[in-house]
Write a structure and sequence with these properties.
The protein has 7 helices and 14 strands. It has helices at about 65-75, 95-105, 125-135, 155-160, 180-195, 210-215, 245-250; strands at about 5-10, 15-25, 25-30, 40-45, 50, 55-60, 80-90, 115-120, 140-145, 170-175, 235-240, 260-265, 265-270, 275. The strands form 2 sheets. Strands 1, 2, 3, 4, 5, 11, 12, 13 and 14 form a 9-stranded mixed β-sheet that branches. A 5-stranded parallel β-sheet has the order 6-7-8-9-10.
Length: about 300
Amino acid sequence: MAYIIEDANVLKNNGFEKSSLLIRNNRIDYISPSLKRMKSMKMNAGSYVLTPGHVMLDFSLEGAFSDIKRIFMEKLIVKGCTTVIAVASAEYERDLPEAIRKKKQIMINSPIDYCIGVKVPLKKLTPSLLINCKKNKIPLLVIEINAEDSIADFPWEWIRNSIYGFPMTLLPLWREHASLNKKKMQFIQLMKKHRISAELECPMEHVQIEKPLLMKIGIYPEKGDIRIGGEVDYNLYGLNEFNSVEEKFSGGYHIHIPEFTIHKGQLIKVGQKICLKPGFGEYCEIAMSGRFAANAVP
């Protein structure tokens, strides 16, 4: 069944555009400033800000679904998350295959879409580990960097060569120490020198990942975008909740809770009510990590 979301304030490039969206077969079939001449059923969204469904990191989804459903309800879906990057931790390289397998097994029951990331200590970041990640299509690595870790002496050229063809993004998780700012600047300079896709630091857990990082990871535009041909994943925020136009443009919706969240055409959040459908989420395999990253390995 086709229907039209009419006169929505669609968030685009730090502003919003008044747009109407034709939805057909759970896909966005057409976007136009006006679709008043079309005869499909219409839903007026003029009093809402419409954003893409959010993508967030999670480090804590472990155990049976009965143990983790609270995280989905209270940390993810309530904030408008429709895709989660579930991070598997491996203290040693030999633990990595089993950690990835377990995380994928846990996420089979996910009510929202998901992909898998990996977290390892910097000192355990080896070419063979990266080749294993590449084989499993892991799009990002969270690397823990401690005070005693020497960034300058690390074999980054080996790392670059190991991820050739699938330039996964590195997200440093800094452990506090006195020379933190100096190490951050050193890290970014080394990433640029070796043309490795990376961020200055890892985003916070359960907070929306911004578009530039989604592009680096390779999950955009499949996720995190409102586009013709895209999935029907979006949030609706009350327009009158924002204090100013500047707050809307600067991403002020981050501090608000969406009134409605739609995932693959299904309402999963209405007000404070959340509808959990175990297994409704799908695994998102990243075909080419870093395809939009300017400093990624070519």
